[in-house]
């Protein structure tokens, strides 16, 4: 099954995206993320991206929980397939894990150590290259 067939399953008889999709924020975020894999000539992915972006952008203003707003805004600003997850990790940890339970604090420390080790490794590689 090709890309077109997969995305056509989300459309109604008139060729528009099904109305029930508009209420599924997680689904829309997944659709938006998938659309980021768009290459030239794949009009269906381009259309899916525009559709999901518009709906998600409108939901940002009316989501009740600040955490939900932040997740949607982050997805729109930094789609996974167009960002570098290792470099986004520190921001994610700081924004989302500081209010967590004790075991989450340990996880945060572990993630920060991992981030610092990778950062150090990259700095060493840059030094070697510049020599």
From TrEMBL:
<protein>
    <recommendedName>
        <fullName>Terpene synthase N-terminal domain-containing protein</fullName>
    </recommendedName>
</protein>
<keyword id="KW-0456">Lyase</keyword>
<dbReference type="InterPro" id="IPR050148">
    <property type="entry name" value="Terpene_synthase-like"/>
</dbReference>
<dbReference type="InterPro" id="IPR001906">
    <property type="entry name" value="Terpene_synth_N"/>
</dbReference>
<dbReference type="Pfam" id="PF01397">
    <property type="entry name" value="Terpene_synth"/>
</dbReference>
<keyword id="KW-0460">Magnesium</keyword>
<dbReference type="InterPro" id="IPR036965">
    <property type="entry name" value="Terpene_synth_N_sf"/>
</dbReference>
<feature type="domain" description="Terpene synthase N-terminal">
    <location>
        <begin position="4"/>
        <end position="62"/>
    </location>
</feature>
<dbReference type="InterPro" id="IPR008949">
    <property type="entry name" value="Isoprenoid_synthase_dom_sf"/>
</dbReference>
<dbReference type="InterPro" id="IPR008930">
    <property type="entry name" value="Terpenoid_cyclase/PrenylTrfase"/>
</dbReference>
